[in-house]
Structures are given as structure tokens and as C-alpha cells.
TrEMBL record:
Full protein name: Acyl-CoA dehydrogenase domain-containing protein
Occurrences of domain Acyl-CoA dehydrogenase/oxidase N-terminal (ranges): 9-92
Coiled coil region boundaries: none
Gene3D superfamilies assigned to the protein according to its UniProt record, in alphabetical order: Acyl-CoA dehydrogenase/oxidase, N-terminal domain
InterPro entries noted in UniProt: AcylCoA_DH/ox_N, AcylCoA_DH/ox_N_sf, AcylCoA_DH/oxidase_NM_dom_sf
Superkingdom of source: Archaea
Species assigned in the record: Candidatus Aramenus sulfurataquae
GO molecular function list: flavin adenine dinucleotide binding; oxidoreductase activity, acting on the CH-CH group of donors
């Protein structure tokens, strides 16, 4: 069993947030602006989808929390990419697709349908 990577991961994410997220957080959250370059940088640093790289769920959520402290929108982008899109693909489909999603080279999306609303 791998020991927790929490201290190193959290410190790296805090540094990333300070350097890349804080300067754009207000624009992302207020203007509904998609920070493509920052998402790519998250992929380069392996923090866009930490579980893809073997980080346990607890430590991945601590990483998400650090981003959410500054930008809820960017945290939602990270969580949707990692958990809603890539987690099922990683489990059931081609690993190349999962690798591209984890790196930020491909951006996933998630759609929710409420069938009961069609009445």
C-alpha cells in the first residue's frame, strides 16, 4: 500500500493555485470564462485528474479543496473532468482516451438528463 501523498500534493497544489489560479479566479467565476491554458497546466502537473496517477480519493479531494478555496468554478472543472468523465472511462474503456483526458489534451463533458421533466 502506498503511503499518503497528501503533504506533497497539497503543497504543490497550493503553489499552483497561488501562481496560476489566483490571478484569474475572479474572471473565471464572474464571467463564465473557461481557463483553457490553466486546465492544460493542471494536466501537465498531473493535478487535473489525480486518481488517474494513483492518488487515492482522499488526497485527490484535498487537492480539489485547495483549488475550490480560490475558484469554485475551476474546482468544478477539475472534478467533472476527473470524476464524472474520466473515472468511468478509465474503468471501462481505452486507456489512451483516459490518458488524454487526464493530461488536459482532451476536455470531457457531462450531461444530466431528467426524464421526469418530459411529462
Amino acid at each position: 500500500m502506498v503511503d499518503s501523498v497528501e503533504p506533497l500534493l497539497v503543497e504543490n497544489v497550493r503553489e499552483f493555485v497561488r501562481k496560476y489560479v489566483q490571478p484569474i479566479a475572479e474572471k473565471v467565476d464572474r464571467e463564465d470564462w473557461y481557463p483553457k491554458e490553466v486546465v492544460l497546466k493542471m494536466g501537465e502537473l498531473d493535478i487535473l485528474d489525480p486518481p488517474h496517477y494513483g492518488v487515492d480519493l482522499h488526497d485527490a479531494m484535498l487537492s480539489l479543496l485547495e483549488i475550490a478555496k480560490v475558484s469554485g468554478s475551476l474546482a468544478l472543472i477539475q472534478d467533472a473532468q476527473a470524476e464524472l468523465v474520466n473515472a468511468p472511462l478509465r474503468k471501462y474503456l481505452d486507456s489512451r482516451i483516459s490518458d488524454d483526458l487526464a493530461s488536459g489534451k482532451v476536455i470531457g463533458s457531462f450531461a444530466l438528463s431528467e426524464l421526469w421533466l418530459r411529462r
